[in-house]
Amino acid sequence: MKPKVIIYKKVDRKVIDFVQETCDVTYFENLDSDTYPEFLHSLKDAHGILGSLLKVDKTLLDQAPQLKVVSNISVGYDNLNLPELSERRILATNTPELLNETVADTVMGLMLSTARRIPELDHWVKTGQWKSNLESQWFGVDVHHKVLGIIGLGGIGAAVAQRANLGFGMDILYHNRSRNEDAEQKYGATYCSMDELLEKSDFVCLMTPHTPETEKMMGKREFEMMKNSAIFINCSRGKTVDEEALIHALQAGEIAGAGLDVFTMEPIEMDNPLLYMKNVVTTPHIGSATHETRFKMAMLAAENLVSGLMGEIPPNLIKAR
Ligand SMILES: NC(=O)C1=CN([C@@H]2O[C@H](COP(=O)(O)OP(=O)(O)OC[C@H]3O[C@@H](n4cnc5c(N)ncnc54)[C@H](OP(=O)(O)O)[C@@H]3O)[C@@H](O)[C@H]2O)C=CC1
Ligand SMILES: O=CC(=O)O
């Protein structure tokens, strides 16, 4: 009998066909209040699930007694309760590396958009306000040859460092728990303490995973340490930032702006003050959201899932640190 699999996110037909070669697939293009009851029902005899961002915790796992593999279509896996999965001998997988370049492009896009005020000026042009030469009140600040501090210089961070250093002539500072000697050699990245990075950087880019250790790692103290002229970029997870402290830092002029792809609450609530600040550029968690990369991620996640269900060690098995 074929293993039973739930795909709970919209994926390309080729991905479904691939999984269907070996598994019996129940497909939900989207999980919402209409489809969730049926999803829960299917969980009861599911051996594998494939998708992203679903909170896989004790409550959900209690509904899934047959589960063997949880395959995330994402590199981040803060949606998974790993100790609970491991206790039940359920394998968990993710999709690292193949999204590095795309997410780094998003980070550069946020840096450039915020520093050069592109969304704000786009609105200005389209609402007929361009009536004479641009006055200096609309000028932005340079990105090239500035200092970029990357907190969490891993796979994506290195792709950001490459673009920023080799393409934009920026000096790179970084802070991790361990050194990234490859990035030091290739992009002249300088390892430093978090405090030194915050004090010296013109742009601070947060790129760590969300873990208990990184939860709200950017808070009041950290924003106060940044230059008043600095721009903060977050493309990691919303919960790595104390959002109240960020809002305060922007309102008080402790920092000059922010480019944000991720938020404490997603989708963001419309009364969030960040949405009404001209010096804040927002995107709806689009880090890896290109057709090419999302297809590759879904296919890799499908390969991980099938491999685990066939009794192999999946290529991207998440190992608890
Ligand atoms: N916005 C979006 O759409 C996307 C967001 N992401 C997010 O980006 C995260 C990073 O992805 P990726 O680059 O592939 O991951 P990597 O594991 O390759 O890199 C993570 C980096 O963070 C560092 N790090 C981890 N914990 C800490 C800590 N406590 N203090 C300082 N540094 C730390 C690690 O270094 P060390 O271990 O030495 O500390 C490592 O350099 C993902 O987990 C995900 O949450 C990813 C893709 C898209
Ligand atoms: O947020 C996206 C991811 O891949 O992680």
Structure in words:
The chain is α/β, with parallel strands linked by helices. The chain has two domains: 4-96 and 291-309, NAD(P)-binding Rossmann-like Domain (Rossmann fold), CATH 3.40.50.720; 100-282, NAD(P)-binding Rossmann-like Domain (Rossmann fold). It is 35% helix and 14% strand. The protein has helices spanning 13-20, 36-43, 58-62, 82-87, 100-115, 118-126, 155-167, 181-187, 194-200, 220-225, 243-251, 291-309, and strands at 4-7, 24-27, 48-51, 69-72, 91-93, 147-151, 171-175, 190-191, 203-206, 231-234, 257-260, 280-282. The strands form two sheets. The chain has a seven-stranded parallel beta sheet with strand order 8-7-6-9-10-11-12, sandwiched between helices. α1 (13-20) runs parallel beside α12 (291-309) and α5 (100-115) packs across α7 (155-167). The longest helix has 19 residues, at 291-309. NADPH dihydro-nicotinamide-adenine-dinucleotide phosphate binds at residues 75-76, 96, 99, 103, 152-157, 175-178, 207-210, 213-214, 235-237, 261-262, 285, 287-288.
List keywords for this structure.
Rossmann fold, binds NADPH dihydro-nicotinamide-adenine-dinucleotide phosphate, 321 residues, EC 1.1.1.79, alpha/beta, binds the ligand O=CC(=O)O, 2 domains, seven-stranded parallel sheet, NAD binding
Cα end-to-end separation: 35 Å
- At the first level of CATH, what is the class of the largest domain? Alpha Beta
CATH superfamily (homologous) name of the largest domain? NAD(P)-binding Rossmann-like Domain
- CATH topological fold name of the largest domain: Rossmann fold
List of distinct ligands in this structure: NADPH dihydro-nicotinamide-adenine-dinucleotide phosphate, the ligand O=CC(=O)O
| Biggest pleated sheet | 7 strands, parallel
**Helices and strands: which structural class?**
alpha/beta
**CATH architecture identity of the largest domain:** 3-Layer(aba) Sandwich
How many helices does DSSP assign? 12
- Tell me the domain tally: 2
- What is the CA-based Rg, rounded? 21 Å
Pfam family, one: 2-Hacid_dh_C
Family: Belongs to the D-isomer specific 2-hydroxyacid dehydrogenase family. GhrB subfamily.
Keywords: Oxidoreductase, Pyruvate
Catalytic activity: (R)-glycerate + NAD(+) = 3-hydroxypyruvate + NADH + H(+); (R)-glycerate + NADP(+) = 3-hydroxypyruvate + NADPH + H(+); glycolate + NADP(+) = glyoxylate + NADPH + H(+)
